[in-house]
Sequence to fold (253 residues):
Amino acid sequence: MLDKLGFRKTKATDQFNIEDNLEIPSHVAIIMDGNGRWAKNKNLPRVAGHHEGMKVVKKIVREADRLGIEILTLYAFSTENWKRPKDEVDFLMKLPGQFLTSYLKELIEKNVQVRVMGDESRLPEHTRAAVNQAKEQTANNTGLILNFALNYGSRHELTMAMRTLAAEVQIGELKPEEIDESKISGALLSHAYPDPDLLIRTSGELRLSNFMLWQLAYTELIFTDVYWPDFSESHLQQAIQHYNRRSRRFGGV
Ligand code: IPE
Ligand code: IPE
Ligand code: MG
Fold:
């Protein structure tokens, strides 16, 4: 059953009074965390959690598209995640290929634009090939931007941005006093997108883990204890309901 806003009535959403004119945040970013603990609780290997997590990505992309979110940024692999055991890293690096093999057709049909944000040079060739194919085949789409943060680290991104600006200063293309906030935003990997309106982190951890440190300056933050493989459409809806109760002041009154 759908309510006025097209929200499917679920047990979880019934706990909330859905306002008539709910604002859908344009840019939603998610730190998809808790796959390993989800698997451990079930006596499964950690990678089983990653596999389940991939299925949840599909569900949440569909729901984000249905709700009219414009940009969905998903933290899939951090610059620090290389520290994990090789088997786990290898498994994670195969997920983009698996995900896209089974899902690219639907993404194309849904007019979704696949993008990647991160240091792609360090990704294995097969991972790069899979994401490049998805980017190319969805390049002319105009719908939801599905932006995977893959081998992404905010400090690395900022470091690279500073190098870019410094090089422009060095060759005389830019004066130091011309470096302003928009120049810095423009030198980041996220330069084409507005800052996230809403950040969701699953799994109960209350930290950013090197994710979009510059861009999250005024983002509404929502932390949930739910592990990513258990995250569902109704959790996303609840997060948007919470977002609607926040008063975003951006330093004003
Ligand atoms: C998130 O789940 C997926 C990645 C970081 C790639 P984790 O693998 O971090 O799961 P936990 O935090 O160990 O439970
Ligand atoms: C953040 O999760 C990275 C991703 C979700 C891809 P982590 O599990 O790597 O973060 P920490 O280590 O708990 O801070
Ligand atoms: Mg984790």
Q: What stands out?
A: Residues 1-19 have pLDDT under 50 and may be disordered. Residues 24-153+195-245 form a domain with the Undecaprenyl pyrophosphate synthetase fold (CATH 3.40.1180.10). The two ends are 39 Å apart (CA to CA). Helices lie at 11-14, 35-41, 46-67, 86-109, 125-137, 154-170, 181-186, 233-245.
